[in-house]
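Reagents: none. Just compute today. Putative lactoylglutathione lyase.
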Amino acid sequence: MAAEHPVPAVRQLRLVVEAADHEAAVAFYRDALGLPEEAAFTGDGDARVVILDAGRATLEIANPAQKRMIDEVEVGRQVAPRIRVAFEVDDARATTARLVAAGASEIAPPTRTPWQSLNSRLDAPADLQITVFEELAAPAAVDPGHDGDV
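Predicted 3D structure written out:
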C-alpha cells in the first residue's frame, strides 16, 4: 500500500560509538584506517567527539541464519557480536596488516568469499568487531548470498 505522503529521504547514517580511550580510537580509525576527519567538538566535563567520513553508508539487516553464515565464511566459527562494522577498502591484505600494526587483533586473515570479496575480521578499538573487505569483482544484481558488506 502506497503512502499518501512521501517519506523524507535519509541524508546520512551516523554510527555513534563510545570509546573509553578516545585518543586511541581516533588514531586507529582516522590515522590507521584512513577515515578523514569531518568535524570535532568539545564540551563541558571533557566531552569530546570526532566525526569521521566513512564514505557511502548502508544499513544491513541480517537474520540470525545470515549472521551465522557470514561468520562461518569469514572466520570459520561464530564470533560476531550483534553489531559488526564493515569497511570497504582497495587492498584488504595491506589494510589488515596496517590495522593489526596499529593495535587491532586479527580474528581471521583476508579470506576469499563466495560472493567474490576478500574479507578479514578484526577486534578493533572502541570494542568494535570490524570486517575489512575488498570487492574482487564488479557487484552483480542482488545476490541472496551477498550481505552487502562482505
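DSSP finds three helices and six strands in the chain.
Action item: order primers for follow-up constructs.
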